[in-house]
Amino acid sequence: MWLPCGCTSKYVASSFARRILASHLHVSGRSRCNVAAFMPEAAGFEGVSGRAALRELSVSNSESFWAAVARHRLSWSIPFHTVQDCDLSRGKIKWFEGGKLNVSVNCLDRHVHTCPERVALIWERDERGSEMKYTYRELLEMTCRVGNLLRRHGVKRGDCVTIYMPTCPLAVASMLACARIGAAHNVVFAGFSADALAERIRDAQSSTVITVNQGVRGGKVIELKKTVDTAVESCPTVKQVFVAMRTDNPVTMTARDIEDVVCEPAVMNSEDVLFLLYTSGSTGKPKGLVHTQAGYLLYAALTHRYVFSYHDGDVFGCVADIGWITGHSYVVYGPLANGATTVLFESTPIYPDPGRYWDMVERLKINQFYGAPTAIRLLLKYGDQWVNKYDRSTLKTLGSVGEPINTEAWEWYHRVVGDGRCPVVDTWWQTETGGICIAPRPSDPDAEIVPGMAMRPFFGIKPVLIDTERCFGFLQGELLTSNNTSGALCMAQPWPGMARTIHNNHQRFIETYFQPYPGYFFTGDGAYRSEEGYYQITGRLDDVINVSGHRIGTAEIEDVVVRAQLSCPAVAESAVIGYTHSIKGQGVYAFVVLKKGIDVKEADLSRQLNGMVSEKIAKYASPDFIQFAQRLPKTRSGKIMRRVLRKVVESDLEGLGDLSTLDDPAAVQEIIQGRRCHV
Ligand code: WT7
Predict the structure, then answer these.
(1) What are the residues whose beta carbons fall under 8 Å from the beta carbon of 54, sequence distance 6 or more?
(2) How would residue 273 be classed by pLDDT, with cut points 50, 70 and 90?
(3) Which of 36, 353, 457, 463 could form a disulfide bond with 43, CB atoms 3.0-4.6 angstroms apart?
């Protein structure tokens, strides 16, 4: 029933496909370049003269482009009849309807069919030098075992399974097992607290949780099972928790491992849910973004191959945790769909020493390394010797993700880590976009790369900049068509990898992404378009901050801070902002106004607030600085002027800007005097 990749000839011969191919033969009569050699998926577009023309075509006729690519890249059990049915103004996004497939078959079975002994996963365990390899055959077996186990315990198609695990093979197998039996997964980053985990389990209405007894990271034991125990106390939906042992022996994954290793894959519709992934927005409540089967997988696979110039046989090392979208798309789904060898990095960049990444590159012969600027900035401070100690000659491409990469870090990454010979690709994207949207490549292999710029939109992506002027509280949108300009970064047309909705809250999905600029998808980021037409991300336009590449809503932290109490509720109000931090990118700075007549020691309360934020959200969200204030600068209508707070914290008193709407100017002076850090 399952066709291995390349066996979709029945569909290629369909009249629909013929129509697409025919309609593009006239695209260009000029010098033909062999597009097929660069992108076999686009072999149908024979008349296209080069990659730039192919990119243009992928935008101007995205439907034909994606149809051709989807047919070529994915194995379908039933071909799709409609390429897309999207209406951005209503937040309606559907791709490849009528098509049926199974994501785990696409990631595993078809490779087992052709190359069962190829290594799928290299688990770079926390203990240096103890890596373990798993072939595609082994990963399929493990996936089937977990799939059967879940099925046997009543997990059905459409159910949602929460996975609270470190980055390890069993976590990957659990994700793929869900995909295999048609359940959605909800991976929660194992650094999240019991409260944060519980909130996500409840919102997702999960009845099953998969975890491990303990995690190990940076030499420390992390009590994941205990956290789950605490979390599920407030989750009435949870009926069962599977606990794997994080030991050296992969077969002891559960007590019930005498299983049939064949697990019949469910036949899924293109638009069935593949997973939920919670991320922060500008309100206190995290949102469960929903990604579906075919479009997501296709987009992850295509970007993985072309942004990083991945070639068969390469070892791909993305050091992200599977709890984030980067882990989903570039540790698991993209590489596995492409039959790649993908690295699961369980440790930290400085354990046991700051040479860890490069030692791993040498040992595992990594060809593409994909990491976060925050780690690069940290390692830069330890000096070149930790890099130079190791042989990095296998490296071909270096990737950066999650936050802006400053020029110093970019240069060091390029010059020291990559010996000046590997392109550095700064990749911009989000949980919402499913995969990379703006990155320097693909393009001609020797196309210019500007340090610190994401630069060029990927195939099928049409970014636009829109004026951010506010008018009567609504965002007004004038399309900015010239270059050398900045504005709100929006996408003018849909692509297969984009999120489909917010779990249980389609209205919030529409309001957040499609109403600010009607007809466009609003990313929440600002961007600059250079004279040459290249994009540079300038940062969030909302109250979302980015701490060490971790996205967090300031409102989420404020919600915790105002709940603080010593003997009685103590906090009247709070404002949390992000400030520029030399390693973390942004740090958390909290302003706290105490209730009148409250007599508490500020140091005690600070300690408690830090503890509470770690406990209710995660350690990385805990404020670096807490400033107690009598009052906060507000507009006459009572809105806290965060812009002013940010300027004060960053010691940019000249840049305070227009203070005419300020209710009481003395509030600003008080805040300046009480500053806790002078950066
Ligand atoms: C936000 C998305 C991208 C996957 C991991 C984070 C920021 C992301 C870049 C970049 C500047 C970036 C944006 C974006 N961001 N990549 N290359 N340059 N900023 O996914 O947690 O959903 O966060 O991260 O602000 O909106 P996420």
Answers:
(1) 35, 38, 39, 42, 45, 48, 459
(2) very high
(3) 36
- Using one digit for the tens of pLDDT, what is the confidence trace for 553-582? 999 999 999 887 666 778 999 999 999 999
Going by CA atoms, what residue is nearest to atom 6 of ligand 1? 402
Centroid of ligand 1 to alpha carbon of 326 (angstroms): 10
Residue-wise pLDDT for 406-465, tens only, equals 999 999 999 999 999 999 999 999 999 999 999 998 877 778 999 989 999 999 999 999
In 363-407, DSSP assigns E strands to: 368-371, 397-401
**C-alpha of residue 280 to centroid of ligand 1, in Å:** 12
Pocket test for ligand 1, best of 296, 303, 428 (most atoms within 8 A of CB): 428
Please tell me the distance from the alpha carbon of residue 18 to that of residue 629, in angstroms, as a whole number. 69
Q: What is the pLDDT of residues 109-155, one digit of tens each?
A: 999 999 999 999 999 999 999 999 999 999 999 999 999 999 999 99
Peptide bond into 352 cis (omega under 30): yes
Question: pTM value?
Answer: 0.90
Count of residues in the chain: 679
- Which ligand 1 atom is at minimum distance from the Cα of 400? 17
* C-alpha distances out from residue 113 to 5, 118, 148, 326, Å: 10, 11, 21, 27
Distance 444 CA to ligand 1 centre (A): 25
Q: Would the CB of 551 count as within 6 Å of ligand 1?
A: yes
Ligand 1 contacts CB of residue 373 (under 6 A): no
- Distance from the CA of 430 to the center of ligand 1, in angstroms? 5
Please work out, in degrees rounded to the nearest 5, the angle formed at the alpha carbon of residue 252 by the alpha carbons of 251 and 255: 125
The rounded distance, in Å, linking the Cα atoms of 511 and 303 is 28
Q: Following DSSP, what letter does each residue of 309-322 receive, concatenated?
A: T--TT-EEEE---T
Q: At what angle do helices 642-649 and 666-673 cross, to 10 degrees?
A: 30
Q: Which whole number is the average pLDDT over 252-277?
A: 77
Nearest to 186 by CA among 271, 272, 278, 103: 278
Tokens encoding 473: 């509280």
pLDDT in tens, 303-323: 999 999 999 999 999 999 999
Using CA positions, which residue lies closest to atom 17 of ligand 1? 428
The interface predicted TM-score (ipTM) is 0.99
* Whole-number pLDDT of residue 252: 38
Q: How many other CB atoms sit within 10 Å of the CB of residue 666?
A: 12
